[in-house]
What does this fold into?
Amino acid sequence: MTILLAFLAALLFACGTWLLMQRRLSRIIIGVGLLGHGANLLLVTAGGPGGLAPLIGADDNFGRYSDPLPQALALTAIVITFGVTAFLLALGFRSWQITRDDAVEDDVEDRFVALLNQEQSAAQEAAESSSDAPDESQSWEGS
Amino acid sequence: MTSLVPLTFALPLFAAAISIIGGKWRSFQRVVSVVTLTAVTGVSIALLVGADRDGYVVHRSGGWPAPLGVSLVVDRLAGMMLVVSAIVLLAVMVYAIGQGGEEQRRVSFHPVYLVLAAGVSGSFVTADLFNLFVAFEMMLAASYVLITLGGRPDQVRSGMSYVVISLVASTLFITVLALLYASTGTVNMADLGERLESIPAGTRAAFSLALLVVFGIKAGLFPLFFWLPDSYPTAPGPVTAVFAGLLTKVGVYAIFRTQTLMFGTHEWMGTVLVVVAVLTMVVGVLGAIAQDDMKRILAFHIISQIGYMIFGLGLFTLAGLAGAIFYIVHHIVVKTALFLVAGLVDRRAGSSRLSEVGGLVRDAPVIALLFAVPALSLAGLPPFSGFIAKFALIDAGIDASQWWGVAAALAVGLLTLFSMTKIWSGVFWGAPEEEPSSAPEVAGRLGGPFWMVFATGVLAAASIAISVAAGPLYELAERAAADLLSPGGYIDAILGERP
It folds into this structure.
């Protein structure tokens, strides 16, 4: 049973990681959800084998019972994951409202800095050979 | 004394609830926030004094004995972090009130900011790894809201990657927690410190590295920092400042706590940390040089400065740890001040891009002065706090004969000065020597709303105060470092004396 759960957690992690690598926001959100499930499953599995009774009563001879701590931890983690996933969905909706698309975009400022460098080196080349610097900056924008 | 410990995060949480109820009246929210954060500052100072006197202030929540219940502990390191973060949180709140903007427009700013404050304090005082996760999540959930508060397209774009990266880090954290619990049967940090000694060395090394990755993502260590310069600068000015000053440092604090308490000192771990630290320093500062936006230059410098702190930890010597702790205290204050100045520049000139702003030294000499003090301190010039912090670290590096680290630290210091000069010549357009002569004649023009300039000024003054009081502060850092190096005291304080 524990082996099965461990494999299930591994499967969830694998699917979640694959979905995280995608460009589509909707897939990323599902991926984050799957990753969270995998981690929570692992947390429950950490409590030991299944099938044991919960801890009830205060007398001393209750025998073997399942460890309540990982279950409490998993519950807390589930609540947190739930809240943050809801926020992420709201953020994704806002992004869709703005761009009408759910692709995750590149860092704009990174592009800007790259463009700046391109312009500078183009200007340098123009100063050196004064031939076709404008073409060069255009070809970058196309790429 | 011990009942003060939970107040550091319970007060802001309670105030956040009140702040939501009174959301209609902005001035009510302001009073609640300022009063609460002032109270937290007072409580933190009292706790630091208590921790320095007794060594450890331990609170057992609900009266449960240690490995069963959640223990809250303030030692000297936690006390110092609490005091610095409370002061910074208060100053930034005053700044935000002075600025208006998002603070004025949104009902949610005050409550969410208070939740963030609670998460930061909670991370510092907890002695339970799962509780640390919860405090982190509290802080991060608040930061998700704050970073996208305006709902602008660029905020949504960069906020998205920030949220996803943080979520992946949190998921990894839960995974590591599950595995730790499966192999040791406890999540109490002191208990873990004892029980981890009995598990195989290879497994322990894997845990140690996994936790380094988890907190490294939040702290912005070398291969894991890429999200930071993208997401921080788009948030509203005061929010960026508090993120830059505190959030990454909470990650650094967690690395310090877990590595020293749970895994002890290992030769190879020290090497890993020093290599990561050097790469973080160099890559961060090189990234900063390429940038054109003031906020992004500063954001890359956060990364490079994190390298210094981790370098101190990687040495695993008293001098190295003390230098690193001093560095964290100095860095939180200075970095926040610099981002507050960036906010002032943004407000004054309408942009923080070097190619678009210029000549501010004549228009707003006060802002120029407020930039110059923390900037020179960040670069590590002699009379300022950064010099003492860097000197302590480099001295410790020489003692441990980590020559590569020392060489990198010195070179990165020089490059930091270079990019501060770049900001100065781009934004303020003038040599630093000119500013004292021009300051008196236009003293009436602050260059921004009074409370914004006041809050920035307080933090700039605090950075000078750190260098003035460097002696006692460094001694305190040394005592904190001694505690970290002999975790037995911490473990005994939590678990109690055992036969």
